[in-house]
Structures are given as C-alpha cells and as structure tokens.
Amino acid sequence: MLKFKFLLIGIMPILAWSAPLKTTQRKEILSDQIGGKFQKTVIGRIDEYQKINAQLFGPTNGALIDIYSPYNGGKLDVKINEDNKNTFNWNLYTILFYHIIKGDLTLYSYCDWDDITRIDNGNLGYPFTSKEFGDSEQGTFLNDSTFRQSIMDLEFLGFYNRMEPMPIMSEMYPGEDSIDANGDVVYYPHDFFFYADSDVMGYKINETWIVNKKGEVLDKRIKSIAPEIIQVDGYSGEEFVKTPFWIDYKELSPLLKSYYLLLNRYRTDRILSFYEFFEKREFFAEIEKEQKNFPVKNK
C-alpha cells in the first residue's frame, strides 16, 4: 500500500507537466522555436582606463559650475552656456551635464526614493521630473529653483560639503556668533560642489542583446547609460564610486549627432560623431551582469 502511494506521488508532477496547453500558448511557443531568437539584458561597464574608450572621457574641463555657496549669495555660476560652449572640450559627461541642466534630458534615479533598497540598473523605472519634484510642468534645473534644489538635495549632479559649516556672524554684536531664539548658534548652509568631468571614471550601460539558439549575438541595443563618479567622503576622507543617475539612450542619441570626436586608431584619422561612436560600437564594455535568455516573439 505504501509503495502504491509513493508511485502516485511520483506520477502526479508528470501528469501536471503533461497537461495540454491552450491553443494560443502553443502557437506562441511554436513561433518562438521557428524564429530561434532570444533576448537578454546585459549590464556592462565602459572603463576610463581602456585605451579604446579614451575619447569618451577627455580632454576634460574641470568644474562646469562653480561651488554653490551661501557665501556668494547662492549665485549659480554656470560656466558652460550658449555664449561660450564652443570653447569647451566636449566629452560624454559634458554633453550629459549640459543637456540635463537645459532640460533636454530626463534624469532617472538609481533607486526608488520610497524604498532605497530597490536599485534600478538602468531599467528607467524612476524618472525625476519637475512635474513631481519641482514647481512647474516643464521646469529645468536652471529656471525652476525647487526642482534645482531637489536635484541638489539628492546629489544627482554634485554633493554637499559635510564638514562643519561656519557660524553666521552677528550683526548686532560684531565678532560674536549669531544665536537663534533657542539659544543655538546659527550656521551657514553647507556648500554644494558639482561633479567635474574629471571625476568620471566609467560608464555603465544597460543593453538588450539578441542571440540565436547557438548563443551567437545577432544584435546589441543600448537602453540606458549612467556615469560612474569618484567621490570623497566628507567625513572619513575615503574615496568611493557612485552611479548618481541614468539617462535614456533613445533620448540621448539624437543629441549625440551634433558632437564630434577624432579617432586615430586607424591608418588615417577619422572624425565621428558621438552617435556614430556608439552605433558603430567603437568602445569596449566589460560585462558585469546578465539576465537569462527569454524568447523574442515574432510579430
């Protein structure tokens, strides 16, 4: 009797697996098998120290905006603008930064701010827009002060100096610190330092790869890109690397057609747009993570 029960238990999964599929399911599976194409998401990293990638990182300009400090009245001194942009060295981060502050590119957060443990690896799940985080529907970093402050507070484009701020001098009692109603010393807000293009040490890219049954790659499509920034901890002084934001490549790629770089890796020098540099895959990206294959349905 016990043997009979054991046999039934062993057969039940087989019976369940053998249950007939619906007609639509069978058609989809058959179509996928005939097409023989699969796709997977690949997270890669473009390293600054790979010689083939050098044109994306330099030459650099240093700071693109001066320190945002209460000592200069909170003046936003944007060094890169319409009047002088022709004097700048256009590396990839300069292009990203310029079009972000103008509002041409949408920032995508690297995490869900309602649950920071939910990290977004370039899936573009968390757009950061002035409609939600500013005072206007189509506001930009430059013309919507609330949106600008939100971007600064979450340190997408720079970071706050975490060192002890200076106290505000009392106007009533020169030489002494200002005191608030609770008897506490009043300090200036922390200075804000914008990332420089020389702080970029790499780029992460989220790609969709199309492969066949043999595992051969048929096509690679960039979905999103993100800078990797090296930063110094304000308390410990130690360096660490962060990915502050992601950019939709479909939104970025038309802008890249207006910027050019010189390639001297061939017998004759070649001038390419940044768009051609990516589309012709003139870069090298090391694979960091990839998801399992799943079928590409024929349309």
Task: Estimate what percentage of residues fall within beta strands.
Answer: 25-35%
Which residues sit in consecutive blocks of at least 5 with pLDDT less than 50? 1-34
Mean of residue pLDDT values: 81
Quaternary structure state of the chains depicted = single chain
Strand-pairing-aware structural class: alpha+beta
Shape: globular
State the order of secondary-structure elements, H for helix, E for strand.
HHEHEEEEHHEEEEEEHEEHEE
State the major sheet: 9 strands, antiparallel
What are the key terms here?
alpha+beta, globular, nine-stranded antiparallel beta sheet, disordered N terminus, 299 residues
Task: Describe what is shown at a glance.
This protein is an alpha+beta fold. It is 22% helix and 27% strand.
Walk me through the topology.
Blueprint: H1 2-17, H2 23-35, E1 37-47, H3 92-102, E2 107-109, E3 111-112, E4 115-119, E5 127-128, H4 130-133, H5 145-153, E6 158-160, E7 192-194, E8 200-212, E9 217-232, E10 239-242, E11 245-248, H6 249-256, E12 260-263, E13 270-273, H7 274-279, E14 286-290, E15 294-295
Structural overview:
The chain is of the alpha+beta class and 299 residues long. It has one domain. It has 7 helices and 15 strands. The strands form 4 sheets. Strands 1, 2, 5, 8, 9, 10, 11, 14 and 15 form a 9-stranded antiparallel β-sheet that branches. 20% of the residues are buried.
